Amino acid sequence: MDELKRLKKDWQENLKFPKLSKEEIYKLLHKKSSSIVKKIFIFSLIEFGFWSLLSFTIKDNEAQQRFDQYEMDHLTTPLIVIGYVILFYFFFMFYKNYKSITTTANSKELMEQILKTRKTVKHYVIFNLLFLYISIVIGLFIEINKNPDVALLTKDFTASGDYYIFYGIMLATTLMMMALLTAILLGFYYLIYGILLKKLKNNYKELKKIELE
User: Fold this and answer.
1) Which residues span the domain enclosing 190?
2) Which of 56, 89, 150, 161 is most buried, by the most CB atoms less than 10 A from its CB?
3) What is the mean pLDDT of the chain?
4) Cβ atoms 83, 128 nearer than 8 A
């Protein structure tokens, strides 16, 4: 009687949780991975739109207008052009990753596409941070050399022999600003891309189990 009950219980559990074949698991992981990579591509475009809208919003403020009067287009224009070119390259790669992952034929190819996507996103985040640092350094260089208030302050410190204090303060302030912006951006990117990459990593682990079975 006890044996019969146990068999009945196992039979009922098997009805509730049917075992999936390797092919069915692959199809499920393939669908989930394609959806994640599509979201990464869409979010990157939304992020680009957000930063572009923000730049247009602050374009007419007093600080930006003063900065434009410095006439340093020979430095800022190439930086902006290079930034846009590299960003569009990443958008193309995100789209390419999405199209490639939708046409994969087996788990091995899907695993390779997942690794490529994760690598692309990481390079994208690193580029954005490096571009931010370079922009800050160039902006600081322009302000020191073109802003009359900063020039006067530099002159006062130089005259008193304490110019190293001035540059020390500038360096410390810049590093603190970079650290703060890095923390904000990394938190921002984790919420947008980090969670999606974690899901892709889990899918990769599941695919690896299938390959090892």
Assistant:
1) 22-212
2) 150
3) 82
4) no
At 20, give phi and psi (nearest 5°).
Answer: -95, 145
Question: Is 9 domain-assigned?
Answer: no
Q: Let me know: does 150 contact 144? Beta carbons within 8 Å.
A: yes
Report if residue 12 sits inside a domain.
Answer: no
Query: Residues 119, 40: contact at Cβ < 8 Å?
Result: no
* pLDDT tens figures, 130-141: 998 998 888 888
pTM of the model: 0.80
**Span 76-101, pLDDT tens digits:** 889 889 999 999 999 999 999 999 99
> How far apart are alpha carbons 76 and 151 in whole angstroms?
20
Tokens of 108: 């091995």
Is residue 4 predicted with pLDDT exceeding 80?
A: no
> How far is 84 from 133, CA to CA, in rounded Å?
16
Q: Tell whether 5 is covered by a domain.
A: no
The burial of 11, by beta-carbon neighbours within 10 Å (0-12 exposed, 13-18 middle, 19 or more buried), is given as exposed
User: Counting beta carbons within 10 angstroms of the beta carbon of residue 197, is it exposed (0 to 12), middle (13 to 18) or buried (19 or more)?
Assistant: buried
The domain tally of the chain equals: 1
Residue 4 lies in a domain: no
Q: Alpha carbon of 139 to those of 68, 80, 132, 157, 174: distances in Å? A: 11, 12, 10, 21, 11
